[in-house]
Q: What sequence folds into this?
């Protein structure tokens, strides 16, 4: 297609409502999944409105378009049986979209240039939601017993707010490439091989991921005291995440 024709098509997209864009996007997704020739103009316009412009209606229609794809991935996930015993399908779909949104807003990612790239991020977000849920249920829960005169039953120890910790991590990791890897490792719960598989356009290979992860962990461990002063319980949280990431070779 010539550049002038492409420009006319993009101009037409910008004039469409979010609902009409979604209808065209569904057809694009259908063709893409069948391996047939397709464009991604409408899907990218919907993504642009939802993520860059912050259009809530576009975000709602975007979830409508992509939710079927996410459910398909979930149905074929190797840990689906264990995942379904812990949470509902709706929970994992919602978590996938929440993580997808955070991957764009918290790490200030550039706008997607292809529909395939957006789907890779969404797939990684779903995997992170599943892995985090499985790990959360398998990890022994820490409780704090009430002191003398304290009312009530034992309560689960409060966890550090993830967005607050992430802001601190960004300050400790000024390199955007390392920030992105830290997000995928610690927030999405992905292993190095999963990161290379889902984000091949960002990381050259497994060796690069291991090298960067080692640098990140060394820097975080040196700054544990700073984290603990900034956020209560962050010391144990960073050490736990560092231990999990070091042991994870998947």
A:
């Amino acid at each position: 297609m010539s550049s002038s024709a492409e420009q006319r098509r993009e101009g037409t997209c910008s004039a469409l409502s979010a609902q009409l864009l979604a209808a065209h996007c569904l057809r694009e997704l259908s063709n893409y999944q069948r391996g047939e020739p397709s464009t991604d103009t409408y899907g990218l316009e919907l993504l642009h409105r939802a993520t860059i412009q912050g259009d809530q209606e576009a975000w709602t229609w975007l979830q409508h378009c992509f939710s079927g794809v996410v459910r398909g991935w979930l149905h074929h996930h190797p840990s689906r049986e264990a995942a379904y015993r812990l949470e509902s399908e709706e929970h994992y779909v919602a978590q996938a979209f929440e993580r997808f949104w955070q991957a764009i807003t918290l790490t200030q990612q550039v706008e997607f240039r292809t529909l395939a790239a957006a789907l890779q991020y969404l797939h990684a977000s779903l995997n992170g939601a599943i892995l985090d849920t499985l790990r959360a249920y398998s990890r022994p829960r820490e409780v704090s017993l009430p002191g003398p005169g304290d009312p009530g039953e034992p309560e689960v120890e409060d966890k550090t707010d993830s967005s607050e910790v992430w802001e601190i991590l960004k300050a400790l990791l000024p390199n955007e490439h390392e920030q992105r890897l830290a997000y995928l490792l610690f927030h999405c719960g992905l292993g190095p091989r999963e990161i290379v598989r889902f984000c091949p356009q960002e990381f050259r290979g497994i060796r690069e991921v291991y090298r960067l992860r080692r640098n990140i962990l060394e820097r975080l461990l040196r700054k544990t005291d700073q984290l603990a002063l900034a956020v209560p319980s962050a010391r144990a949280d960073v050490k736990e995440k560092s231990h999990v990431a070091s042991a994870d070779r998947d």
Notes: Residues 1-6, 141-160, 230-250 have pLDDT under 50 and may be disordered. Residues 15-114 form one domain.
